[in-house]
UniProtKB/TrEMBL annotation:
Keywords: ATP-binding, Nucleotide-binding, Transport. This is ABC transporter ATP-binding protein. PROSITE patterns: ABC_TRANSPORTER_2. Gene3D superfamilies: P-loop containing nucleotide triphosphate hydrolases. It comes from Streptomyces adustus. GO terms for molecular function: ATP binding; ATP hydrolysis activity. SMART domains: AAA. It holds the Pfam family ABC_tran. Residues 2-227 form the ABC transporter domain. Belongs to the ABC transporter superfamily.
Length: 316
C-alpha cells in the first residue's frame, strides 16, 4: 500500500504538486492520469524518496522510503528507462542492483527471462532499442520481488506484442495481491489495464475512483437509434414522454434511455429500426472532459501543421 498525506512540492514559484492525499491499494492496478506537467513524475519521485516533499508525507507499507532496508524488496519502480549505465550489459546492470539490495544473483536470470531479454543479457545497454530499454527497466523493478510496483509510462516504445505483455504482467502482479501503480498517456491502454484511477491536474487531485465510476461521472451515456421512419419514431417517443436529440447525421439520441423500452415502442408501432445501441464515452473522452480546465499546453487544432515542431504550441 502507498499512502500520500497532504503531499506537496514547490519548485521556486511553481507549485508542481499540491496537497495530494490518496491511497494506492493492493490487489488491483491503479492508473495515474493527468495532462502534461500535471505533476505525475514529481509525485512518483517523491514516493521513491528521489525528491523531498515541500510538505506532507508518503508511506510505503507504513514506512518512509528512507527507512526501508534493501528498498528494492519493498518497492520496484520503472521511472526512466534511460537511467542505465550504457556501458554495462543488461546482466551486469541487474547484478549491481541485486548486490546492493541483498538480492541473490540467481534472481537476475529469472527476471531477464521474465522480460524476454535472456538472449541479449551480455549485450551493452547502450545498444538497446527503446523497447528493450523499457524491458530492462521493468526487470529492475521486478528484481526484489517487491509487494509494490510503480511504472511511469511503461508501454513507451513497446510494440503491440510488448504492450500486450506488460498489460498482462501488471494484471497478474495485481492478482497476486501486489500494489501496482502505473501512469500512462495511452488512454485506450489504461482502460484495458487499470481498475482504479487517480487523476491529477495542475498538481491537484481531480478524481480517485473506480474506472467504471470515473467514466460514468465524466461522460454522457445515451442510446443511438437509426430508423428509415424517423418522423414516426419521433412522434412515438415524444408521445411516450421520451426526450430525443436529433443529430446532424440523421441518427437520434436518447439520454439515459432504456434500449428495451425504445425497442418495444418501435415494435408496437411497427417501426423498422436499423440501429438501437447503448453508447458510453471512452476513458479518453471522460478524461478530456474532466481535465479540460487544467490542461497547461494546448495545440492549435484549426491551423495547418507548424513548419517546425513546437511552433504551434502555447501555454494556456
Ligand atoms: N526539477 C524541476 N524544477 C523546476 N520545475 C520542475 C522540476 N520538475 C518538474 N517541474 C515542473 O513541475 C510541473 C510538474 O512536472 P511533472 O514532470 O511532475 O509532470 P508530469 O505530470 O509527469 O508531466 P508529463 O506527463 O509531461 O510527463 C511541471 O510544470 C514541471 O515543469
Amino acid at each position: 500500500m502507498i499512502e500520500l498525506e497532504g503531499l506537496s512540492k514547490r519548485y521556486g514559484e511553481k507549485v508542481a504538486v499540491s496537497s495530494l492525499t490518496f491511497t494506492v491499494r493492493p490487489g488491483i492496478v491503479t492508473g495515474f492520469l493527468g495532462p502534461n506537467g500535471a505533476g505525475k513524475s514529481t509525485t512518483m519521485r517523491m514516493m521513491l524518496g528521489l525528491d523531498r516533499p515541500t510538505a506532507g508525507d508518503v508511506r510505503i507499507d507504513g514506512r518512509h522510503y528512507a527507512d526501508l532496508k534493501d528498498p528494492l524488496k519493498y518497492i520496484g519502480a520503472l521511472l526512466d528507462a534511460k537511467a542505465v549505465h550504457g556501458g554495462r550489459s543488461a546482466y551486469n546492470h541487474l547484478l549491481c542492483l541485486a548486490q546492493s539490495n541483498g538480492i541473490p544473483n540467481s534472481r537476475v536470470h529469472e527476471v531477464l527471462d521474465t522480460v524476454g531479454l535472456s538472449a541479449v543479457a551480455k549485450k551493452k545497454a547502450k545498444g538497446f532499442s527503446l523497447g528493450m530499454g523499457q524491458r530492462l527497466g521493468i526487470a529492475g523493478a521486478l528484481l526484489g520481488d517487491p509487494r509494490i510496483l510503480m511504472f511511469d509510462e511503461p508501454v513507451n516504445g513497446l510494440d503491440p506484442e510488448g504492450i500486450h505483455w506488460i498489460r498482462n504482467l501488471m494484471k497478474s502482479l495485481a492478482a497476486q495481491g501486489r500494489t501496482v501503480f502505473v501512469s500512462s498517456h495511452l488512454m485506450s491502454e489504461m482502460a484495458l489495464t487499470a481498475e482504479h484511477l487517480v487523476v491529477i491536474g495542475q498538481g491537484r487531485l481531480l478524481a480517485d475512483t473506480s474506472m467504471a465510476e470515473f467514466i460514468r461521472q465524466n461522460s454522457r451515456a445515451y442510446v443511438r437509434i437509426r430508423t428509415p421512419q424517423r418522423e414516426r419514431l419521433l412522434d412515438v417517443l415524444h408521445g411516450a414522454g421520451i426526450t430525443v436529440v436529433e443529430t446532424g447525421s440523421g441518427a437520434l439520441e436518447v439520454d439515459a434511455g432504456k434500449p428495451e423500452r425504445i425497442g418495444e415502442l418501435a415494435a408496437q408501432h411497427q417501426i423498422v429500426l436499423h440501429e438501437l445501441s447503448p453508447q458510453q464515452a471512452s476513458l479518453e473522452e471522460a478524461f478530456m472532459q474532466l481535465t479540460a480546465e487544467s490542461v497547461e499546453y494546448h495545440a492549435h487544432s484549426d491551423t495547418a501543421l507548424p513548419h517546425q515542431w513546437g511552433d504551434g504550441w502555447e501555454r494556456g
